[in-house]
């Protein structure tokens, strides 16, 4: 027999088939200043979507709106099937988020961090224990379970933070410059984890200033002064601008920017 669910339970079920992120003419004004100017795009399940732009282009503001952290001024957007205007709390429950600034507690051990975030995401103790073992095995960090996160190399902290942000199996993970300060080899290892998550169906939304990372994305959008000026696969963008590298694509577009900081 079909049981009726109260609206909140029904609304919090898994995302429907179709795009995991939709965004239509999404806009954010701060007074007279338009930080995000009518951006529109869709991101599919399991897609790796690169969100590029010079400093001050509006990436963080757009990402904060999509994460349910900042109310938009105009337009429409859904994330994991939830509306950014009406259901920001449900969005927060169904996404993962990782940035350089918001990450793990340095003065807690690896195991304590996993337990803490598992609790924040509402997972039960037994599930957290199971996931902790699997996560440490996957990262080759079993011996570091009782090590303070502060004493791990930066590349390990980033991989751990990424894995922790996926503990509750969100439909989409937002990564805000997740690999700052590490070398290309370590970045490449981090990307192995990204590919693994995407292959399992997680949608990846990532901002980066590294053009090697832009090359790894399925599609890349480039923001200039609050607008999306280009959006295509890395190969498509290079073709469109008649250049050989993403660096040149980026320079070509960012050169005309007014709002760069
Ligand atoms: N709360 C705010 N009030 C006023 N202006 C803001 C506010 N937040 C951001 N801005 C402005 O909006 C513009 C876009 O900022 P945003 O942080 O989104 O850019 P960004 O592309 O993420 O840059 P970065 O790469 O440096 O993080 C900037 O000019 C910034 O000064």
UniProtKB/TrEMBL annotation:
A GO molecular function held by the record: ATP binding
Domain ABC transporter: 21-250
SUPFAM superfamilies from the UniProt entry: P-loop containing nucleoside triphosphate hydrolases
Entry keyword ATP-binding: yes
Keyword entries, A-Z: ATP-binding, Nucleotide-binding
Protein name as catalogued: ABC transporter ATP-binding protein
Origin species: Hymenobacter montanus
